[in-house]
Amino acid sequence: MMIEKICIINPNSLDTVTKGIDAALQPLRRPEGPSLECFTLADGPPGIQTQRDADAAIGPLVRKVASLEPTASAFVIACFSDPGLHSLREMTPKPVIGIGEAGMLTALTLGQRIGVIAILAGSIPRHLRYYGAMGIRDRLAAELPVNLSVAELADRQRTLMRMTEVGKTLRDAHGADVLVMGCAGMAALRAQLQQEVRIPVVEPCQAAVAMAIGLVQLDWHRA
Questions:
Q1: For residue 186, which of 99, 124, 114, 59 has the smallest C-alpha distance?
Q2: Both 9 and 85 in a single domain?
Q3: pTM
Q4: Which of 68, 77, 186, 202 is 20 to 30 A (C-alpha) from 165?
Q5: At 178, phi and psi to the nearest 5?
Q6: In what helix (H) or strand (E) does residue 51 lie, and over which residues does it extend?
Q7: Are residues 107 and 87 in the same domain?
Q8: 46 and 68 in one domain?
Q9: For residue 16, what is the enclosing H or E element?
Q10: What is the pLDDT of residues 140-154, one digit of tens each?
């Protein structure tokens, strides 16, 4: 019997981000599957930090998904901006999960007031538009940046320090009772951050893959 395969695509060109995502998914791996395979979008932007970056990733993502579609059971787009999500859902009946959508939906089950940790202040307006489209703005406590680029997130000690500071501010000053990590480049730090802030922390790649596993095991697909 062939094991089902979920393809997790990092839509930027940084292998360090993909490796962090892959490590974060280890608790979800089982010998009986589905298998979880992570891919770097080699012709994607070197970090998705602006709307232009997100838009630039869509064409390469469409081509990548088309190449993987014959053997994949589901796809996860591992960027919090969910670039190309609806285009990809148009081109395949298989589940396509965006980590931004999945992360926020998971947070709704864990708390009443969601705090989001962004990488840069410039990312926040883009995210706020998305929360508005999802109809969940009234559940957002606040979104605050760590002011580190995607590439700078590779310095894990510095990143954890900044995320802890921002997470505690979201908790204490804004009333957040659940946090969402607003970039796939933060993936490896969820457990450490949760230990520091003492409230639930959602790592959106894990949330999205958990959803994808459930959909694959239930044999869900669009007509």
A1: 99
A2: yes
A3: 0.94
A4: 77
A5: -155, 145
A6: helix 51-68
A7: no
A8: yes
A9: helix 15-24
A10: 999 999 999 888 988
Contacts 24+ apart (CB under 8 A), 95-100: 95/211, 95/212, 95/215, 95/216, 95/220, 95/221, 96/65, 97/208, 97/209, 97/211, 97/212, 97/215, 98/208, 99/184, 99/204, 99/205, 99/207, 99/208, 100/127, 100/130, 100/182, 100/204
User: Tokens standing for 199?
Assistant: 């409230």
The answer on 118 and 90 residing in a single domain is no
The answer to whether residue 206 scores a pLDDT higher than 90 is yes
Query: Do 26 and 109 belong together in one domain?
Result: no
Which amino acid does the sequence have at 120? L
**Do residues 77 and 96 lie in contact, with contact meaning Cβ atoms separated by under 8 Å?**
yes
Q: Are residues 113 and 88 both part of a single domain?
A: no
Shared domain for 94 and 134, answered yes or no, is: no
What is the DSSP-derived secondary structure letter of residue 116? E
